[in-house]
Structures are given as structure tokens and as C-alpha cells.
Amino acid sequence: MLIDPRHLEQLAVIVDVGTLQQAAVQIGTSQPALSRMISTLEARIGMPLFERSTRPLTPTAIGLELSHQGRAIRTARLRAMETVDFGAKGFFGVLKLGSPPFLCKSLMSEAIASFLSARPNIRIDLIPDYHAGLIERIYRNQVDIIVGPSKFVDRGNTDLILETLFNDMIVVVGRADHPIMKLRKATATDLQHVTWVGHSERSVLLSDMEDALGQLGVRKPRIAFQSESAGAVLELLKETDFLTVLPHYALRPDGSDGLAIADIALPTKPQVISAITLAERTESKLTSDFKAHLRAQVALRFDN
Known about the structure:
The chain has 10 helices and 10 strands.
């Protein structure tokens, strides 16, 4: 038996207010229309919905039960409307982000935390990966936004939209009280005798570090540890006399991570960190809002 859910919603209002006249005003219809609705519904179910000759209207057992169902339908409808409205405003949904591990560890986690505090109804999936894996993910619609270096993206590639966030440099990093940090100008000789922390074979940081140290004159640096885990690398640096080469953004601006930058300029060019999206995909309000939020976070971090 099919029952029009609108009739059940109207029935719930009638039961709640007790008269057809008041229910008609609340619903925005006429009293005769509600009377016809009741007759139609009673004919369909074969049972009366209200006790006869009672004022205010007193529902029968079946009438009361159906009014509960009507109230539930109205609640579900209103929640669905609210969900659609929240989604249109960027306050509902799932956002999938991809970044290299050190960006996930620093800038991205901070930006996501502040973004989520104002949007408790959304979910963000942050996927740490390297360039090749992230590009594959965005083409497979597994990632909405890549945040990372864009130097390997062909500028003639019209499939991707690149929006510059900031420029960054790679630097030599170690614990704040490392002997190298006390030198006014560290030399290649100083660095030659250091033990180094490397990076994943899949990370461009590994080749960037080897190229930069090689140009400085550091030959065959001894690498004692390498990992895809940004957290493991940072913790190891704090606990040892090892050094590594990291993007400047990997360090906390206030020095609270216990790490410092050696006074030595690596012979490398700045790298551009961009927000990368797929051109053919319609950008959601949630995506555009996060990009705007990320730009604001970048400005706040680097202006300070």
C-alpha cells in the first residue's frame, strides 16, 4: 500500500495543533483541502484517523502512529534540506588532500586543524605521498587538491591548474644545539664529517640533497638513516648529531620543534609550492574555501 508522505506530514501537524483550521494556517493550505486529505487517507488504509465528534481532534491509535511517522518524515526532509544547504556553502562533505610528508607534518596539519574547527560537519582525508603518486591520484579522482612543489608539472599541461602559494628553499637542518649551528659560516669541510639523515628513494628531497651537497663539495656523504616518515626524520634529528636537508617549511617558525638551520647557503633555486587541481573537475565550494583558507594560513605564517 502506497501512502503519500506529504499526507503523513500534514496529519502530524493536525494532531499537533488539534484543529483543521490551525493546521491549515500552519501548513499554508485550506481547511477543506485537509478534510479531503483525511478522507483520502482513511479510504486508503480502511480505518478512521480521528475519533468522531471530539474537539479538539483526538487521533485514533492508527492515526497517532501515522502522525509519528509523518513527524519523522518531516524531520528527515528538513535535515536533507539542511545538508544540501550546508554542502552548497562548503560546510558539509569530504575533502581529499594530498601532500608530500613534510608538508603534511607542518603547514597542512595546521591549516586543516583551523579549517575543521569552523566546519565540524565535514571530513578531510590527508594523503601523504610523493609527486608521481599524487599526480596519479588526482587523475583518478582520489585527491581533490595537491599541495606541493610544482617544478615537475609541465607548465603547458592544461589538464592541471596551478595556483602558487609560496616560494621555499631547502636548508641544512639539525638540532638547535648541534655544533654546526654554532658556526658563523659552515664550510664543505665541516659538513664532510657529518652523519646525515636521508629521505625516501621516491622523494625528490633525496636527489635535491645529494645535488646540493655535491655542488658544495661534500663528496659521498655518510647516510645513517632514511625514511618516508617525516615524523621519524624530525625526531631522529632532535636526538642525534645527524643533519639533513629539508624544505624550510618543514620547521616550525617559533623554533618549538627544537631544530635549527645551519648558516650555509645551498646552491639551489627556490621551489614553488602550489595548490594543484584538475581543470576538468568542477570545483566545489568546499574545495575553493579550503584553498582560500590555505592562502590565508600561508600569509599568516610567512608574514610573521
